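Following up on my earlier thread - several people asked me to post the actual chain instead of describing it. Fair enough. Here it is, all 99 residues.
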Amino acid sequence: MIGVKDLLSVLDRWDKWKRIQQAPERIDELETRLAEALEGALEPLRCKYCGSADTTIDVKYWKRVHGQKMQTMFRVCSSCNGRDRVEDVELIGDEPCGG
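Reply from S.P.:
Thanks for posting it. Predicted structure:
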C-alpha cells in the first residue's frame, strides 16, 4: 500500500506538480503587477485638480478653425467639479457630435 509520503515524493518529481505548488506565490505576484498596471492605465483619466478617477467626458461646443469644424471635449470631475480640456476633434458632417 502506498503512503502519503510516497505519493508526495512521486508528485515532487513531476514538473507540473512543482508549478502547482508555486501557484500561490505566482498569483500574488500577478495580482500586484496587475494592480500596478491598472493604476497606470487610470492615470490619464484622473482629475488634474484632485486626482479622482471619477471623471467623464463632456462636449461643450463646436466651432470652425481654419475651415474645419471642430468640437472641444473636456474632462469633468464628479468629485470636485474640476474641468480641463482634453482635445479638439475634427467633425465630419453638419451636426456636432454629442448634441
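The radius of gyration is 27 Å. That should answer part of your original question.
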